Predict the structure.
Amino acid sequence: RQRIHPREVHGLFQRWRWFFVFLTQAVFYGLPWLQWTTELGQRQAVLFDLEAKRFYLFGLVLYPQDFIYLAALLIVCAYALFFFTAVAGRLWCGYACPQSVYTQIFLWMEHRFEGDRLARMRLDKAPWSREKLLKKGGKHLAWLAFAAVTGFTFVGYFLPIRDLALELARAEMTPWATFWVLFYGFATYGNAGWLREQICTYMCPYARFQSTLL
């Protein structure tokens, strides 16, 4: 595989792409921290408590026997995805797919550390030096830090994130919580930093039947 170094582009569609990057990430990183006031006090507004088998969605509390509603919601989302693809093309893939969004963020960090497309290509071909080590190392450290925050936030949807943050500060996180934070963080780092378009080409099932929808 020859590594792809995309050029930095500007324009209307790129502005829309960045708008959805900010929108999706604001929702993803901000939602677990929202609190919901109930008669019994405050709790996390969105929490999928697998241990207690309770799923909190703002004022709604669902139990395992209520999964029929989740199935109905997923069916509606699937048909909506197919409909928008058939009418307007690759809206999901281009603007809202997590793989596209995180790849865009990781490419932005790569551009900040290594320069534009030609500078990155020259850097890849150049022999190892102090400058190359600093640029490459700084980029990967930034990727890992961002991926770690992403993994922590993801686990915060299944464990109370405020308690999780306190455990992290005290170095008292449980082995399972630590495993899932590292697992999802590593998946983000690998998918958005290294695999990129290969996820879409070889692994994404949606890409297989997208041409039929178009």
